[in-house]
Design brief:
CATH class of the largest domain: Alpha Beta
CATH architecture of the largest domain: Roll
Distance between the termini: 36 Å
Radius of gyration: 25 Å
Shape: globular
CATH superfamily of the largest domain: dip2346 domain like
Number of helices: 20
Number of strands: 14
């Protein structure tokens, strides 16, 4: 049984945003944080939450919604990359435009924040405009965020280019944190006020979940996911003082709230909010139907995040501080690495064999293992074995002829110049799909691929980028020990 009711979420969340639009006078600028189209973190810690739930929820607004996409000029200059999918923020903006268009939600403009005539920002603007997009510039404001009188004036927000919007709900999103989404919303409110248009501001962040306890594993998992940002969850002191109720928020929102409140007062004369929690519209916490299932999923995610920072440290992308932080978070959640069954099984196998090994806990709780061989990577072997288990096929049955595999290896090594002859997951699945055309037993195994979704996977060595991408596409949650398969200094697939 899922721990989260996705249909209830879609219905409840859209109703709550509609209420906020009405309370704002008929127009709402909604700052959208986190992943909009592919929130895999939420789907892992809230079993039943679909990765595209948030955009599906926005689809329900039909022709009442439009979007603004924000990018910081300095992120363009630094070639900042979205780590989970490996593309630059400038390319992610274009991907977001396409994704909105596919869902029938128009993007009314791209805003470049912190614009100061940076040549890479100018180049990006020319490219976006050549593709038919409207691009607007927002400028640094001297004395920001302390000089409220300057910020809320024609020399502050008034200098920014106004984005023409026509619909009741304006979604303001960005490739990542620090893009300037909130400032764009406030700048738009200033211009709307000058034009005599009633509009409001709200914030949408899935995590931390405000109506779950501070110590709830879901909220701890958010801290684990943002260890590189040094975010920490806190009881919202403004909400506690205003209403006598404990709600969870995170440090950056709490720290910026007095400034935000002062800016709203500078624009409107008064602020509609008494706390940062008041600004939020997230209803995810109201749609949890099995708290124990959610707790267990979140605890597993914390351990996965621990292995992720171990890998980053091994690759030289982070230091010891991030590792120590994750170790503390694991302790808070009452977890050790071996709490995940796949980790315990892999470490047992590692002590008995030098071959790379991958273990998976299937959604039904059954355990499957795969070992590297001259023909297959450990990941490919594990998935083949898992399909056999799901299809009820004896382990001794060969689903792919070794001769076929050897022929593919010849292609890889002799003609394509690969050093590793073993078939990766994608190569193995191609071979399996071909065999399925003529062998009913193979077809039976092949048809079980959707049953892998939600499996918890662990590898004894760092997984290749190819296999890691396939795990994501299959909906399997993978982690790995911070060890390379070889002692080479350069590693590639």
């Amino acid at each position: 049984m899922p721990g989260f009711d996705n249909d209830l979420y879609l219905r409840t969340q859209s109703e709550h945003i509609l209420e906020r639009i009405g309370a704002s006078g008929g127009k709402l600028y909604l700052e959208f944080g986190g992943k909009l189209f592919d929130d895999y973190h939420a789907s892992r810690v809230l079993p039943g939450f679909m990765p595209d739930s948030k955009i599906r929820m926005l689809e329900q607004f039909g022709d009442r919604a439009e979007a603004i996409i924000v990018i910081n000029a300095e992120d363009i200059v630094r070639n900042k990359v979205r780590k989970d999918i490996g593309i630059g923020y400038d390319q992610e903006v274009l991907r977001l435009v396409d994704s909105f268009a596919d869902r029938g939600i128009p993007v009314c403009g791209i805003v470049i924040t912190h614009y100061d005539a940076q040549p890479p920002a100018d180049a990006f603007q020319r490219k976006a405009e050549a593709l038919g997009m409207k691009v607007y510039r927002h400028y640094p404001i001297a004395g920001y965020p302390a000089d409220i009188s300057l910020i809320a004036s024609d020399e502050g927000y008034g200098r920014n280019e106004y984005v023409e919007t026509t619909r009741p709900l304006v979604v303001v999103t960005a490739p990542g944190p620090g893009s300037g989404k909130m400032a764009v919303c406030l700048s738009q409110l200033y211009h709307e006020k000058k034009r005599g248009v009633s509009a409001g501001y709200a914030k949408f962040e899935t995590f931390p979940i405000w109506n779950l306890p501070l110590s709830h594993p879901v909220n701890i998992a958010y801290e684990a996911a943002t260890a590189d940002l040094s975010d920490s969850n806190m009881i919202d002191p403004f909400h506690l003082e205003a209403y006598g109720k404990s709600c969870v928020n995170y440090n950056r929102d709490i720290e910026i709230f007095p400034v935000l409140n002062s800016i709203l007062e500078g624009i409107f004369g008064e602020s509609p909010y008494r706390s940062p929690t008041d600004m939020g519209v997230n209803m995810a916490g109201c749609c949890i139907v099995d708290d124990d299932a959610v707790r267990q999923a979140a605890k597993a995610e914390i351990v996965r995040r621990y292995f992720a920072v171990l890998r980053e440290r091994r690759e030289g992308r982070c230091g010891d501080d991030a590792v120590f932080r994750l170790e503390l978070l694991m302790k808070r959640a009452g977890m050790i690495p071996e709490s995940r069954k796949a980790v315990a099984l892999v470490r047992k196998e590692m002590s008995e064999s030098e071959r790379p090994v991958v273990a998976a806990e299937l959604p039904d709780g059954r355990m499957v293992i795969g070992r590297a061989s001259p023909l297959l990577t450990a990941s490919s072997a594990m998935i083949l074995n898992a399909l056999k288990v799901l299809a009820g096929i004896d382990d001794s049955v060969l689903l792919i002829s070794p001769d076929v595999i050897k022929s593919m290896q010849r292609l890889k090594v002799e003609y394509l110049g690969n050093r590793n002859p073993r078939l990766h997951i994608d190569e193995m699945l191609v071979a399996l799909s071909i065999a399925a055309n003529t062998d009913p037993l193979v077809e039976k195994a092949f048809s079980k691929l959707p049953g892998l979704r939600g499996s918890d996977v662990h590898s004894s060595v760092i997984v290749s980028s190819v296999d890691e991408g396939l795990y994501k596409k299959l909906g399997m949650y993978v982690s790995c020990e911070p060890e390379y398969q070889t002692k080479c200094l350069f590693h590639w697939n």
